[in-house]
Specification:
The structure is a single chain. With about 350 residues, the protein is α/β, with parallel strands linked by helices. The protein has one domain: Alpha-Beta Barrel (TIM Barrel), CATH 3.20.20.210. The chain is built from 15 helices and 9 strands. The strands form 2 sheets. Strands 1-4-5-6-7-8-9 form a 7-stranded parallel sheet. The protein has a two-stranded antiparallel ribbon with strand order 2-3. Helix 12 links the parallel strand 7 and strand 8. Helix 9 runs parallel beside helix 10 and helix 14 runs parallel beside helix 15. It is globular, with a radius of gyration of 19 Å. The relative contact order is 0.14. Bound molecules: coproporphyrinogen I (1CP). Coproporphyrinogen I (1CP) binds next to strand 3.
Length: about 350
């Protein structure tokens, strides 16, 4: 009998041996193996090759001993299936050739053609085969976070053009979130069809939106997305940064797991959201850059507060920074497993 994954058991609130751990951006620049590959291939070349995708996805599992893998891709990748042109620029991030600002541009976006990104699903299948008992998390960007890149044209910290569209052209903004939501649903369903055992929706920049605007302009789309994935019967993770004011609404979307950043106190989030929802987080990513002592002291505090909670998964509060020493992450994984065992009931 194969050992059941502690990550999947925690997602279901079922008994498991210790606190599961994985890291957002566990594949990336902090790894020597990734930097070596990037001298030969661009980020998008890696993400468009099923075999390279598989190799990059599997490596952190081998190197760190984490309990889940996340598909190596990017939230921008499926936009190809909407006929939208973008690039991932060195030290910048996603850049969109023709930022979307008008009703005409939104009306011209064709329905999502998942066959144009079949390499994602082929890579998913290859990766699941290679991972064996370790589950694979498929993912997509959430409509607001995707819209922020499409409307701004590049990474932004104010989201000014996106918010202007939300307030000044609500019908256009709603139309855009609608086509993006359709894409997200289909893209995630195809990853599940190819074997992904859990799905995560990254709404990284949603924390910039106020509570009332979230309820009015974004929440209906998120409810539609999670509602449309429910019949898959696999864990659905919803993550954002700076979301303290949105957590109750996020938990009402139908997501099984809520990922929270380092600003929140997890026992307080548990108290607010109740016992049913699975919580994931939330070590300050800067702690792993600061070194082993800072990482372990922060993690020990979190794990000792949450161990014994059957619906808890350890992660950082956001992605692994590229300046991280992999040795710190390796040590972190083994200590979280050790502390998590102490707290588990039975
Ligand atoms: O090689 C490179 O150039 C490295 C940069 C890089 C990497 C490693 C980008 C450009 N994307 C990725 C891979 C990636 N992106 C993964 C798989 C790796 C893993 O997690 O193990 C995932 C899940 C993403 C998702 C993603 N892309 C998000 C959501 C997660 C998050 O970090 O908030 C976002 C916001 C993006 C956009 C993006 N792509 C790349 C960068 C540098 C950014 C952020 C730009 C910004 O600051 O706005």
């Amino acid at each position: 009998m194969t050992q059941e994954s502690r990550f999947l058991l925690a997602c279901q609130g079922k008994a498991h041996d210790t606190v599961p751990v994985w890291f957002m951006r566990q594949a990336g620049r902090y790894q020597e193996s990734y930097r070596a590959l990037r001298t030969r291939y661009s980020m998008l070349e890696l993400a468009r090759s099923p075999r390279l995708m598989r190799d990059v996805t599997v490596r952190p599992v081998e190197e760190l001993g984490v309990d889940a893998a996340i598909l190596f891709s990017d939230i921008m990748v499926p936009l190809t299936g909407l006929g939208l042109d973008f690039d991932i620029q060195e030290n910048v991030g996603p850049v969109v050739r023709d930022p979307i600002r008008t009703a005409g541009q939104v009306a011209q976006i064709p329905p999502f053609r998942s066959d144009l990104v079949d390499y994602v699903y082929e890579g998913t299948q290859l990766t699941v085969e290679a991972l064996g008992p370790i589950p694979l998390i498929g993912f997509a960007g959430a409509p607001f976070t995707l819209a922020s890149y499409l409307v701004e044209g590049r990474p932004s910290r104010t989201y000014r053009a996106t918010k202007e569209m939300m307030w000044n052209n609500p019908a256009v903004f709603q139309g855009l979130l609608e086509v993006l939501s359709d894409m997200v649903i289909e893209h995630l369903r195809r990853q599940a069809g190819a074997g992904a055992q859990a799905l995560q929706v990254f709404d990284s920049w949603i924390g910039a939106v106020g509570q009332a605007d979230y309820q009015r302009a974004v929440l209906p789309h998120m409810m539609r997305i999670f509602g449309a994935l429910k019949d898959l019967g696999i864990p659905l993770i919803y993550f954002g940064v700076g979301t303290q004011h949105l957590l109750s609404a996020m938990a009402a979307t139908g997501a099984t797991v809520i990922g929270v950043d380092w600003r929140t106190h997890l026992p307080e989030v548990r108290h607010t959201l109740g016992a049913e929802v699975v919580l994931m987080g939330n070590l300050d990513p800067e702690r792993v850059v600061a070194g082993t002592a800072a990482a372990l002291s922060g993690a020990e505090e979190i794990v000792k507060q949450m161990a014994g909670d059957p619906r808890y998964i350890f992660n950082l509060g956001h992605g692994v920074p590229k300046e991280t020493n992999p040795e710190v992450l390796r040590e972190l994984v083994s200590r979280v497993h050790e502390w998590g065992r102490l707290g588990e009931g039975s």
